[in-house]
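Two quick folds needed for the group meeting slides. Do the first one here.
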Amino acid sequence: MQLQKERIIIGFIVAAALCIVMGCSYTKQASFGSTDKATLELADAAHRRMDLHATIDILTRLTVDAGSSADDKEKAFARLALLRAYFYKDNNSAVDLIQKALSISGNQPDLWTVQSRIHCLLGQYQEAEKAAQQALALAKTTSEILAARLALGLAVHDHSMRRFRAGEAPDDALLREGREALCAVLAVEPGQPRAAELLLGISLFLGDGPTAQFAWRQFFRLPAERPAVGILAQPSVTLARILPHLHVRPLSREQRRSLIEALAQSRFYDYASLIAASSQFGKDPDIAQERTIKDIVVYDGFISRLRTLCEEFYRNTAVASGLLDSISFLNNKDKAFRRDQDEEMQRLWQELSFPEGRPAYSVSRFKDEMLRRFGLDWWGDGKTNGYTDILAGHRISDENRKVEQYGYSADIRLVVDDQMISAGYSSWFWSSLTSSMVGGTADSSTIFVFRPAYVEQQYQEWRNAADEGNRAKVEARISQLLFQDDALAAKNPYGYLPGLDSSLRHAATMRIYHRIAAGNLAGADLCIAFINEFSRVQDSYLVFAHEGRHLIDKKYFLSKYTSWGAMEQERRAKLSQIVFAADPKLAFTGILSPYIGDPKIPHAMADEMIVKGYVQWMSANSGKIPGLNPSRPLLPQFNLLSDEQVRQIARNLDPLANEK
């Protein structure tokens, strides 16, 4: 049997939107034993490893442990409720568990927000709306209010989508309530992608063209004065022409066709298909039989079926992993999944129109045709992080950049994908409790960035900096984790330190926040300026420095590159990631992997080699580090290094830097 190839991935982006509520902090731990004390950190580690059963076991034991705090028990019950809903679709258990969480400390708005999400996962939209309304009534802090409003918008949107697809009239009063909630989110957090996407749908349902146009531009973070370019240029012009007339229903046939095509061109295939199918947008039901419109509807059906196929397969994988005889079971499931996937691809091929004659189907032809027609980037074979899955998303940006390092240069083709059909098993698993996901993939000449992974983190970091309540919770948690780092480093001087990782991330976030706030900006203007700057800093090391180094090595040292192997390839790219980053200490958090030292993962082995180099330098140069205590473990004192020292150590470790 041919083995499935492990994909190259840019890495996972820790964008844990629920981490404040759930108290997450990812740690690398040994397997959980019967005598170990259950903690949230151990549960987080199991979840990070994608070990569902260990996660549930640890959280369950935490809820009955007499030594657990009320706060930890509340969080454990809430997380168990989400896991039961997400992985098992177990309504009774999920509702019972969230009620137990609520019974501990009364009416916490965050718990009602979690309950709303649970009801959405189970398709219980009226209950989800009520829970979100209760969360909003109880919310006090900015983050609590925003989370409740977003939950309400999600429930209203998904409920309305189901009604539209069933041919039922929407509840306009409820739609207006959802619109108000989401507009309020975007007033505080302009460009927030989830709020903008939901608002676009709700505005289309209401026939509110101006708000729909506003939401569309917010989703792509396009200022009012700046025209869209590239892939988005044409749909932007069309929507600006059509949407102001959306309230005058029915739309003319030409208006309806143009609206459908513009939404599809900007990758909102679900909204395009809905407008083609719903009589509320026009009195010409045969429009869905026009060739281009029919192809859009057919393609949206493929997206829906494939997402369902992936979710069912991923759910089976998660539930079966680690159980008796799971290897044989999963091997059979893998084969069935690939067979079903290919059947869906061939079905789409047969259902699409080919005016000049249908070519014979092949996977390579399918990929080329789907990219040409629908902007689909498709990786339908291989594995991510060791698991069979699919990576598939829609292209919204395609541009060329140049990178230079140590006198060498390379051209980068940077493609940004959004509206993911699947970002892989890992992303699906992690999204049960966090917003972490795989950040993208790459081939020999192109970097593919999965936009949702990055933008979610950017807005979470904004909340952690700008919201005093969030910031206090984050800093209190970091203090607890830092206190534990010395003991962890005493056991393994090169291992993962959750306190150091969290503190470096938060310190970088606050540096960016204070730098932007010094420009006398406030409110929404401060938010969008922060997001743009955080994005620039993030891209400097994750995309251009790291991936740029891979391209430079392949361009100038191809024969050596192949012989180095994956670990050495990654080590060199990670060293460039630090040296050429806008913020080297933030870039170093990409080295502090929860997997550090795992012999099965080349990234993790490269991380350990780099950390060893830093610890050895700190030991040999302790007199050059102000405030260093040589009697303490060294890695927890990494933050005492200056930015230039952080860069210089990486240069010292890099063979390419020392050749020049």
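Then this one, please, same format:
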Amino acid sequence: MTIVRLLILVTLIFNFVASTVIDDAKCDAQLEYFDQALSKHEKWAIEYDTKVEKIQGKHCMIFYRALENATEHESDRKFNWREMKKFNIPKLYLHRFLRVTPVLAILILIALSIMKFMGSGPYFNFFLFGTTVSQCQDYYWTALLHIQNYYNPRDVCISSSWYLSVDYQLVLLSPLILYPAYYFGWKFLWTLPTYIIGIQIWTFIAALENGYKPIRRFMTYEANQKSRDEFYFPTHIRCGPWLIGIILGYIFYKLKNRKISINKYLNTSMWILSIGTIVAILLGIFGLQSVEYSDNKIAHALFFALQRNSWGLAIAWIVFSCEMGYGSVIRKFLELPIWIPLGRMSLSFYLVHVLYFTLHVGSSRVPTNFDDFQMMHLFAGDIIVTTMLATLLWLTFEEPILLIENFIYKFIEQRRLKPSK
């Protein structure tokens, strides 16, 4: 399911194009509230305000494999669940740290050193130093320790790296799920949906009381910052799709590669429900900004509370149905080998595109024309350039580090198995 993560990443980049050209126009025109006016336009509101949901899909896709990774040494899937004691926790932590941290460190170094020589423009210094350099000078260490979503959520070093903090914290917490599942099975795992529902209820009540809205540009600055501090960055709030992925991974483990029969009417209904949920989340902004619902606190609070985990559930069903052999043409498309190399570079894509857009917007000298053709033109060009930069980053840093890590593991294993004289 590499393509699922890749498609999520592409839509993230497209949404980032929309948000960065909004900031571009705001600065060029010197209109403080230009972005709010633009967000009220139906078409741009979708592109601008729904990019965060895609990240939930990545959480679900990454962590549904957690149980499989714990038993990866048994390729025949005849692993006894009670052999979980063989699960190497230090190796899990080290691998994930080496997977994401060196690449992030390289980009932080680039941002603090040579990026200032890579562009120019009337707002270049404002964008570079105001959104990247100053934050990285003060908080590079929290980024590398993956704690900035709690320690400095309003001054994130490289804006997209907050997700890596959440990602690594979830990896650190994974044994707290795996070991109880080892001892208690479904008796423990049934507590996870309870936690998810509890978080949704809490989020709904807080959104209702404080006026939080899914269209963050419709809130006051203070309400926006408070909602991000309380419900956007914290791992304990954002972990719903991760828990859904854990449950999905456990279901796959229990099936042990067996295919189950799904009634065609049930399968069709679930596919319609899943795709409908995704479309509703993406297009729900239309209704929420209409006259009838613009001031409807209950509608905004429900959308604010339910969108995240609903997206994760929809992705989980698509994965489950495809794995059970009911994906038909969709599964064949998702499993095309052409997606594999691009999927492997998803981390480099995710990190490098922010720095590229910082240079792109900071170097703008004229206002951007907001029309469909212009947006698609920008998107296509940005995808090509981002792919080139991500490929360079992956070949020079990300993949070599992983190869060195694998070599060290193999060397240690060979020394361990080598008979003593």
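Slide caption for protein two: The mean pLDDT is 79.
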